Amino acid sequence: MLIKRYTISEYHLNINLKSIKNNIVIKTLGIFLLILFFSSVCITYFNNNIKSTNNMDIIVADFRCDINKLYDAAIVIETTRNYNSSNNINAYGSEGKILMLDEISPDLKTALIKITDLDNDNKISSEEFSELKIMRLNPNIYEKQFKELKFSPLSKDRNFKNYVVITQGKYSGTILYNGSLKFVDSKNRIYLGIELFT
Q1: Residue 152 CB contacts under 8 Å (≥ 6 apart), including other chains
Q2: Does the record's keyword annotation contain Transmembrane helix (predicted)?
Q3: DSSP states of 63-98 as a string?
């Protein structure tokens, strides 16, 4: 009788040990899978972040390249205009109409404070703004000049009408962006043109 009880107990003990071993294996496997899942989520998140950051910087680089090309084209156009006054081209290949302050995008207004705020009040007045004589680019002239210079736009906004040029003063010939897109780099800076960003 004693022997039978011992055998039954041993049988139960073996079953319990197997159950415990199985539970440990299942729990370990579960923890491993959980760690693997969270690791893959983290890696995916960081990869997407890096790709997004790189993508933002590439978009800004393309935009800045286009601004430089537009600036080079503006200088060529203005030089040609000064040598040949009979060609009926406005200053820096502009449309010839001076823009009002309310025609400038909010981001560009903010950036322009850096170069126009003469009375240091951190605002741009109509008088300060009018000193720059900002005009829209004439798309026909710039398209023609880009073909001659073998330039091709790279940035998302290739509409020359969304760019403006300062036609008077220290910054004359400077091309600025006055469109609706935002060219934001990985440091959260919005670029608007040569040396101007918010």
Answers
A1: 146
A2: yes
A3: HHHHHHHHHHHHHHHHHHHHH-GGG-PPGGGEEEEE
